[in-house]
Structure formats: structure tokens, C-alpha cells
Amino acid sequence: MALIVQKFGGSSLSTVEKIKAVAKRVVTVKRQGHQVIVVVSAMGKTTDELIALAKQVHHQPPGRELDLLLSTGEMVSVALVSMAIEELSEEAEGFPGYFAGIRTDTLHTKARIKRIEPIRIQKELEKGKIVVVAGFQGLSPEDAITTLGRGGSDLTAIALAAILQADRCEIFTDVPGVFTADPNRVPQAKLIPLLSYEEMLEMASTGAKVMQSRAVEFAKKYRVPFTVRATFQEGEGTMVKELDVQEGAVVSSVSLDDKQAKISVFRVPDQPGVAARLFQALGAENINVDMIVQNVGQDNRADISFTVNLIDLEKSLQIAREIATGLGAERVTADEDIAKISIIGIGMMNHPGVAGRMFHALASAGINIEMISTSEIKISCVVRRKQADRAIQAVHREFIESQEREQSRTAPDREVT
Ligand code: ASP
Ligand code: MG
After folding, report:
1. DSSP assignments along 127-183, one per residue
2. Which of 140, 146, 169, 271 fits a disulfide with 5 by CB distance 3.0 to 4.6 angstroms?
3. Which domains does the chain have, with CATH numbers?
């Protein structure tokens, strides 16, 4: 008998038919002799609709009441999924977050889990019941309902799997797993069977939104392996766990972020403290700067370019202009027509020359690179946005499709040895 946590996202619960199908799936696992905890999100786009509703009565809805409102979405799912399970003659017990013992801090709409007291869950499991828990919600020290940030049901599932030392944690969604690239942009993209926490986190931060980042961070911290798989399709999905550099692919995925803009400040004084002033001012306004390049100074002047999220562009531009004026810089420009292409893979730590291969792939496709940044397991290049699709396809071909060809060439030899 294994303890299995299964999380179902909003798209898997958007209709009564889907709720019944989810119940059936859960009951099948239970009848194979396992203990099952089901974590559910709100039906379909409910959370978006509730937020819109709140905004109709308040220009900036207060966090405490907003959380109260948002938590109702998951409550509906818990009740309906539990009923659907009972309809199949299995016993179910539905829990709001606070009965499940999920205690958080007081930071409404993005609360952090502080501790979990799963006594009631354990009791019901021991009685042989299927436990259904509302994702995305907890209780603050002030006994107010809190929510865990958008996509927070993932976190509920991972946290419960951690505290209860579940044998399996499965995140069910509307795609078969994590892909080597967005299949809408790269038709040759394929499912990644095995991925490390680090790669999954980098993918989330480079534009591939599969799971809540906080949930992946939590899984990494407490070493909770999990799978991402489709609710209504066959397949094992993607397993995410701790991987050695040797086990990991040199490049496991290619991602595209076209929601950034570039700001350039021309001819700032080339002296200590200039970059500090600019980026401290941006930091003070909570603006996340991603890539930064500064060229080699000439006649005591240098140019600095950096990227920010598109939504922060106006504010960043205003700050950059103020600082630039104070510094006596020449001018500030903004450029929205950019895209960031990234390759991610823990295996690249062991393989020199990966950056060169990426630049060559882009050059061969006639694509100019405007900015570059690297980390241990990621290389990103900024290119013109209209070339984004061509760029991502060229890079995917170089690292993913060519790897496949190489593997199939060497496979027979490997069988012999
Ligand atoms: N319903 C919440 C949201 O839409 C939580 C979740 O789906 O995980 O963000
Ligand atoms: Mg979700």
C-alpha cells in the first residue's frame, strides 16, 4: 500500500463531466489498495472570475477579504469531487485548507506555508477514506483564510507530500508533461521524461509556465520527487527529482520569453557607483532586472543596457530617465521588439563549448545576438522578436533533435557493451 498525493488543476475540473472522470480516476487508484489524498484547484477560470468580481466592488480589494473570496473557488471543487467519489461508492472526506492543518503567515494573496498539522488527514486516511483537500489555501496566525499565490494548489500538493512522506506525488494537468520547447512554436518538441528541480525552476523563470515556481522550490528544498502528467491521456509524464550532473542532459529544453523589454542608457560616466545608482533605484521600486550588459568605456563614457518585464517598462523607463539626467548621460531608449531564447540543462556544467554551439546555431540561421547571459545551467540570448520562432527552432534543432540523431546512431554500440 502506497500513499499517493494527486493534484488536479482547474482545467481538469472545469465541467461536471471532468469532475466525474477525475473521481473515477482517483477511485481506481484507491481500489488498487492505496491511500489517496486528492488536492484540487478551483474549476476552470473561477479564480480569474472571482478576482474580476472583487475589482468591480473595490479598486484595490483588501487582501483578507480577497482571500476569503478566492478560497471559495477551491471549496466548490472539494465538495463536488468528494460527492462524485461518494457517488462511486467510496468514502471521501473533503477538507478546506484550515481543517487540513495548513498554517501560513499573514501575507494575504501570497502567504507562505509555515507548518502543517495533518492529524485529521491521517485519521481519515486510516479509516480508509479518500481525503480531498482544497488547494491554494491556509490559515494565518490570526485565523484568517490566506491563499498561497496564483497556482498555489501545486504548493499544497507538494507540501502535503513532503510532510506525510508520500510515496508518490502527481500533478495532473491538461498537457502530457514538460516539453523540450513549446510545441506550438516548435512542432518537433517532445516530452522530457526526467528533469531536475533546478532545470524545472529555470524553465519557469524563462517563460515556460507549467507549475508554480514556489511549489518547485519547496519540492527541491524538501526533496519531494513529483510527476507532471495529463489527466485525460495515457502516459507517464515528466518525473522531476534530484539528478546528478552525469544523469542530466546537456540541454534538456529550449524556452522563449517574449514578455521583456530592453532599456539602454547611453554614455553614462565610466566611474564607480554609476551602475549601483541605476540598479538600486530600480530595485527600490521592486523592479526585477534580468539581463545587463555594459560595453567597454570610451573617453570615460559607457553604455548600459538591461531588460525588464514588459509590465514594468513604463516605470523602469521613468526611473532610468531620472537617474540618467542626474548622471549627465546622453539619452535613454526603450525597445519592446525583443525576445529572450534560453537553453537549460544541468549537463552543461560538465560540457564546455555549449555557448559556442548555441551562438553558431543562431548565426547559421542568420540571427543576430544582442545580449547574452549565462548561469551554470542556462544560457540566454536576446534577439529581435520577429526572429524568435526561427531562433528557437534553430537552437532546438542543434541541441535536442541532433542529440536524438546521435543517440540513435550510437544506440546499437551501447547494447553490445
Ligand atoms: N485556483 C488558483 C489559481 O488559479 C490556484 C491554482 O489553480 O493552483 O491560481
Ligand atoms: Mg494551476
Report:
1. TTPEEEEETTEEE-TTS-EEE-STTTHHHHHHHHHHHTT-SEEEEEESSSS-BSS-T
2. 169
3. 3-174 (3.40.1160.10), 244-410 (3.30.2130.10)
Alpha carbon distances (Å) from 212 to 175, 324, 358? 15, 37, 28
Please give the helix or strand (H or E) that residue 306 lies within, else none. strand 301-309
Q: Does pLDDT of 412 surpass 50?
A: no
Ligand 1: lining residues by beta carbon, under 6 Å: 9-10, 41-42, 47, 73, 135-136, 150-154
Q: Summarize pLDDT for 135-154 with one digit per residue, the tens.
A: 999 999 999 999 999 999 99
The residues placing their C-beta within 5 Å of ligand 2, an ion, are: 9, 151
Residues in contact with 14: Cβ distance below 8 Å, sequence separation at least 6, in sequence order: 43, 44, 45
Q: Whose CA is nearest to atom 5 of ligand 1?
A: 151
In contact, 354 and 251? CB cutoff 8 Å: yes
**What local confidence, expressed as pLDDT, does residue 57 receive?**
98
Residue 41 Cα to ligand 2 midpoint, Å, equals 7
Tell whether pTM > 0.85.
Answer: yes
